[in-house]
Specification:
With 414 residues, this protein is mainly alpha-helical. The protein is 87% helix and 0% strand. It is globular and about 60 Å long.
Length: 414
């Protein structure tokens, strides 16, 4: 319940700031989004080793809440800047780059802590329910933003989100204390401690990734999942632009998909995914989304249209948030602590943002070559097939490591 509540407050606060980030993109200039994407990727490449450096110098009991205290200090700085220069393009760009980088770290750190508290059998049972807390928060955050943005303004929303992150800090402390209690009472719980740092160079996460086929497979899984998301994002943006003239109608079209995605994801996580993984295994949870995406691409190629593309985009996000990513988080319960905090962080941030950039350019190349919708669907089908193959290999290796008595050591030594 603590983990559910922490994820609820974390994602609720995140979804208060996300519309602010998207608004800042319009202030900077919609025709310069590529510069915002590029700046985000470069900043992520700086922050990933910075996190590894901090993990090597501070105990985890200080590092985990310290990341959120650092976030709060940043929010206060942007509050002052927004009050002083609300329409400044470079303040807008700075906020976009900052939020697009820090959001990945916050979510990654939360799930790293979950993998460090719960063992593989516990995670299979509980991670879907914990993830449902985030989906519920994702519903609440936009509601808070819609209600409060006019009376308190964008700068005021930053303070509201900051209050939420204060709650996250308190819950992180409670979760760390619960880890100590569970470690003493339950042999099933993870037996690692947080009363130490994680020695190593700032590039430790990258080197751990290169040395482990299991971690490399996880990076490939993340990369291909990101490519699929980008393909559907391009399709949705294009079809909504051609279908609706007014920006209000376009906003409603996007918002409708958002609402369907968040409500459906929460329902799946609360009532379905946990039972699915317990009965059929984590491999099924990993493979299900690539299979459904392949079917979507075939359907859109045969009958392209607004409703089918919108439905495909909704299904892609629902299965990604409600099935693929929660199932993927379970995988980190069978690796060593260094890999959980450093390699996972690198995958969740640098690999994720590289996926954004690379897939956008690849899809642009497909379009520039004149292949159109058919080419995009063919590209998507190939990516989905590769993603499915990676998912099968990843799930089988996880089951092997989970069944071994020295699974974390084996994962670290690969």
């Amino acid at each position: 319940m603590l983990a559910f509540l922490c994820n609820f407050v974390l994602l609720g606060s995140y979804y208060i700031l996300r519309p602010v980030r998207d608004t800042m993109a319009t202030v900077f200039g919609a025709d310069e989004l590529q510069n915002l994407f590029t700046g985000t990727f470069l900043l992520t490449l700086v922050c990933a080793p910075a996190f590894a450096w901090a993990a090597a110098r501070f105990r985890l009991t200080r590092l985990l809440p310290g990341i959120f205290w650092f976030l709060l200090s940043n929010i206060l700085v942007f509050y002052v800047l927004f009050r002083a220069a609300p329409q400044d393009r470079w303040v807008a760009a700075a906020f976009y780059w900052w939020f697009s980088t820090i959001n990945l770290f916050l979510i990654s750190i939360f799930w790293t802590l979950m993998a460090d508290i719960f063992s593989a059998p516990q995670a299979t049972r509980l991670f879907a329910f914990i993830a449902a807390g985030g989906s519920t928060g994702a519903i609440m955050g936009p509601i808070v933003t819609t209600v409060l943005v006019r009376p308190i303004g964008i700068a005021g929303l930053l303070l509201v989100a900051g209050g939420g992150f204060l709650g996250v800090i308190a819950l992180v402390h409670l979760l760390m204390a619960e880890k100590v209690r569970l470690r003493a009472l339950s042999p099933q719980a993870q037996q690692t401690t947080l009363e130490h740092n994680l020695p190593g160079s700032p590039l430790r996460g990258f080197t751990l990734l290169l040395r482990s086929p299991f971690l490399l497979n996880q990076a490939a899984f993340m990369l291909l999942m990101t490519w699929i998301a980008t393909i559907f994002y391009f399709l949705q943006t294009d079809i909504v632009t051609r279908t609706f003239v007014g920006v209000e109608s376009r906003t409603i079209a996007f918002a409708t998909v958002d609402l369907i995605v968040n409500v459906s994801s929460a329902a799946i996580l609360i009532f379905g995914l946990g039972r699915l993984m317990q009965r059929f295994g984590v491999t099924t949870g990993l493979v299900l989304t690539p299979v459904l995406m392949a079917l979507c691409f075939v359907g859109i190629a045969l009958a392209p249209g607004f409703l089918l593309i919108q439905a495909g985009r909704a299904l892609q996000r629902i299965t990604q948030y409600g099935v693929a990513r929660p199932a993927r988080e379970v995988l980190f319960t069978v690796v060593d602590q260094q890999s959980r905090y450093k390699a996972k962080n690198f995958i969740d941030t640098a690999v994720y943002r590289f996926g954004d950039l690379s897939s956008a350019w690849l899809l642009t190349g497909v379009r520039a070559a004149g292949f159109g919708l058919t080419g995009a669907m063919g590209f998507g089908l190939a990516v989905a097939a590769a993603w499915g193959a990676v998912a099968v290999a990843l799930g089988r290796r996880y089951e092997t490591l989970r069944g071994g008595a020295a699974a974390p050591v084996a994962a670290a030594a690969e």
